[in-house]
Amino acid sequence: xxxxxxxxxxxxxxxxxxxxxxxxxxxxxxxxxxxxxxxxxxxxxxxxxxxxxxxxxxxxxxxxxxxxxxxxxxxxxxxxxxxxxxxxxxxxxxxxxxxxxxxxxxxxxxxxxxxxxxxxxxxxxxxxxxxxxxxxxxxxxxxxxxxxxxxxxxxxxxxxxxxxxxxxxxxxxxxxxxxxxxxxxxxxxxxxxxxxxxxxxxxxxxxxxxxxxxxxxxxxxxxxxxxxxxxxxxxxxxxxxxxxxxxxxxxxxxxxxxxxxxxxxxxxxxxxxxxxxxxxxxxxxxxxxxxxxxxxxxxxxxxxxxxxxxxxxxxxxxxxxxxxxxxx
Length: 328
Fold this sequence. Notes:
By secondary structure, the protein is of the alpha/beta class. The protein is about 35% helix and about 10% strand. It has 13 helices and eight strands. Helix 2 links the parallel strand 1 (about 45-50) and strand 2. The longest helix is centred in the first third of the chain and has 14 residues, at about 100-110.
C-alpha cells in the first residue's frame, strides 16, 4: 500500500481521464463443471477472496493463501475476485473506480460463475478494504449467499485519515492535500476508492450527505435499507480480525465497527453505538446468536502468519461449512 511517485503520477492521469456518475471487543455470548452438486456432497463450500488496496487477483501471496485454504480443507474451490482480467488493471481498480459499480460487477460475476453460482452457499474472505466490499456484496446481492464471512484489518467503520506520506515524497503530499480539500466532491467520491470509505466522526454531516459508499452500506442515513439488514442476518458466522499494531488503518478499531475520537483518544466499541443498539445492520442480532466474533491478529497491517491463517481456515471453513451442511 506504499505510495510511490510513479504510482501517483499514473493515478492522477487515470483519475482525470475517468468519467463515472455518482451512484447512489467482545461478543455476547473443486468439482468439475459437468458434475451435479448435491447437499450430500462432503465438499467444502467455495471460498471467495477479495484482496486489498494495491494488490491484484493473481498475486503470488494471494494464491499461496488459497493453497493454505486447500491444505486445511481439501477440495475447496477458490475464486479470486477481479475487477479486470489484466492483473495490472485489477490493481489500478483498487485505487480508482466507483465502488458501487465495482460491487455490482462482482455480484454479476459470482451469480453467473459456472461453479460458484451452483453452490448452495459460499464463504467469503476479505483482506483490508476487500472485507467491507464483500460485506457490501452480501447486503446488496448475496447470490449465491455467504455462509461465513472473515475479514482481516477491514475498515468497516471507515478511515478518518488517509495513508501518511513520507517526509520527502512531495508528490504524495501534494496529492494528499488535494484529497483532503476535496474529499466530499462528486469528482473524488465517484473515482477514488479510499475516499469512498472515508469517515470523519468530526464531520458526520458532510459524510452522511456525500459519502458514495460507506454511509449507505452501514445504513447510517435516516432511511434504512431493510434488505441490507436481512441479508447480513443470513450469515452463520461473521469473524472480524483487527491487527494489534496496525498503523496503516486509522483507526485500527474500524475493523470491529468501533468509533474512535481523535480529540479525546477514546474508543467507543460497537456494542455502545447506535448502529448496534438500534440494530441498523443486524449486527446485534448476530451477536446475540453467537455468530459475531472479534479476533486479534498480532503485528502490523496485513502481517499474516501461516499458522493463524491455517488455524482460521480449519476452524471456520472446515467440516461445519460444507455443501452437505444442513444449516446452509
